[in-house]
Each structure stands twice: as structure tokens, then as C-alpha cells.
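Human:
Care to share another protein and its fold?

Assistant:
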Amino acid sequence: MVIGASLNPNRYSNIAIKRLRGKKIPTKALGLKKGEVLDVRIDNEKLHYENIDTVTLYLNSKRQEEYYDYILKLKPRRVIFNPGSENLAFVKLLKNNNIASEIACTLVLLSTNQY
């Protein structure tokens, strides 16, 4: 799941959605504006999903605060903090809830087959 998704094709979150789908990885997206990137609907409200493996964040640490509870309720296996989204307070909260976290770049992980 991409949180901080953008319809702007120049934004890294948009590129990440395209690369995830290019690798046939099922993808959900949450952003400020509704829309679509390829076959992925970007929602602008926090819908509940089952079986979310990874949440990849494209929000700065301050903007993440309103998503803490939402992400914890999704119970992902891991959360990726992309460059600019590093948040040690949230890393600690995730750890306390048995959710792994990585400070990494989703695009690099995908391009090196480490996603």
C-alpha cells in the first residue's frame, strides 16, 4: 500500500505505483486526491483492507501522525520509510506492535529485486 500517493507522474509515489504494478504486485493507494494510476485507484479516505503486506510511506514525519492508528490497524508485515519520511518515533511504535520497518527507498528495493 502506498500512502502519500500522487496523481502527478513526476512524484516518486506515482512512479512507485507504476513499478509495483509492473512487477505484478497487488497495490492499494491512499492520497489527498482521488484518481487512478494505471489500474490502481487512489483513495482519499482511510479504507480498511485485509492482507496488506507492506506500507510504503511518502509523507513527512509530521503528516504521518494522523495515519499511525490506521496503519497499525492494517497490521502490515512491514512499513518502508522512503527518503524524507524517516520517523524514529513511528519506528518505535511499529516495533512495539510487532511490525517491521525499513528506512529505504521503495524504487531502489524494486530495481534491485529486494522488495
